[in-house]
């Protein structure tokens, strides 16, 4: 059975700021979660043009996430044999992302499909059909408004292990935004919402429904962690330009490839002090 779930993530920033902030956050999270054994491998980043989406950037990545695979999935194939392949077409403010689980030892996974359609609007999550769904799709869709000021303690939130920031007490020094107190989504300005439509299909008898629920829960935890950090790191990326972001993406892609190939050095664990992405790039570059 195909599952359709729409996550609405309200953010205390403008759409222009969000484009910068979310790109910065994704880069930094990928770098912090990549080491010599597992992490993110960027395969390709090139411009594209599509009749529906328009002009944008196509990205292809492989995720080697052996330590994050649930134990029950390892019963079908060893974690070392599992790779998640991602293709993304981003034409801001809209994008489409598709995922494929690659496992030669368990070809059943190739039948599964996961797509995420993203629409971004300058509202506080009040658009009831941002993706222009049909009546049948609307009837099957489940909607959840994700509050970035909330915290989760489920399995996937622990696996992602993102830095813990209390946004109900956080205040940006550069923008004076925050803290995000009860009712903030109705009163904050500027405000925008990213509408993420997750469609998961795992047509595997006896496993499909559990896998669908697992993957959707994982995506929710990732959305929450990523957007929480996007606001928590606002003082690092605020004021940057798209040209600066694109240059940092090029540098980060090279560093991720080097990091995945090089052996881990003793004493190289994160020292607990939060670094900006620029500092992370310099630190990794000095070890290569």
Automatic annotation (TrEMBL):
Entry's Gene Ontology molecular function annotations: phosphatidylinositol transfer activity
Subcellular location per the Swiss-Prot or TrEMBL entry: Nucleus
Residue ranges of every copy of the Phosphatidylinositol transfer protein N-terminal domain listed in the record: 3-252
Entry annotated with the keyword Nucleus: yes
Domain of life: Eukaryota
Major location category of this protein: nucleus
Keywords linked to the UniProt accession: Nucleus
Cellular compartments per GO CC: cell periphery; cytoplasm; nucleus
CDD domains per record: SRPBCC_PITP (cd07815)
Protein name: Phosphatidylinositol transfer protein N-terminal domain-containing protein
Organism (species): Oryza nivara
């Amino acid at each position: 059975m195909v599952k359709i779930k729409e996550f609405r993530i309200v953010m205390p920033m403008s759409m222009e700021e969000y484009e910068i902030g979310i790109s910065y956050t994704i880069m930094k999270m990928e770098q912090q979660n990549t080491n010599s054994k597992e992490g993110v491998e960027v395969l390709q980043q090139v411009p594209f043009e599509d009749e529906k989406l328009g002009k944008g950037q196509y990205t292809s990545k492989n995720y080697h996430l052996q330590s994050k695979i649930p134990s029950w999935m390892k019963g079908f194939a060893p974690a070392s044999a599992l790779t998640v392949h991602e293709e993304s077409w981003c034409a801001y403010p809209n994008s489409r992302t598709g995922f494929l689980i690659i496992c030669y030892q368990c070809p059943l996974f190739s039948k599964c499909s996961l797509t995420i359609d993203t629409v971004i609007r300058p509202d506080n999550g009040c658009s009831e059909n941002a993706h222009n769904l049909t009546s049948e799709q609307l009837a099957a869709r489940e909607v959840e408004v994700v509050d970035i000021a909330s915290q989760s303690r489920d399995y996937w939130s622990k696996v992602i292990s993102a830095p813990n920031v209390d946004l109900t007490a956080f205040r940006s020094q550069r923008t004076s935004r925050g803290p995000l107190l009860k009712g903030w989504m109705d009163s904050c300005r500027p405000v925008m919402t990213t509408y993420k439509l997750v469609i998961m299909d795992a047509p595997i008898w006896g496993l499909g429904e559990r896998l669908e629920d697992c993957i959707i829960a994982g995506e929710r935890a990732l959305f929450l962690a990523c957007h929480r950090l996007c606001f928590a790191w606002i003082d690092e990326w605020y004021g940057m330009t798209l040209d600066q972001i694109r240059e940092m993406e090029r540098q980060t892609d090279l560093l991720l490839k080097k990091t995945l190939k090089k052996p881990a050095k003793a004493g190289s664990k994160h020292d607990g002090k939060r670094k900006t992405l620029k500092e992370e790039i310099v630190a990794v570059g000095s070890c290569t």
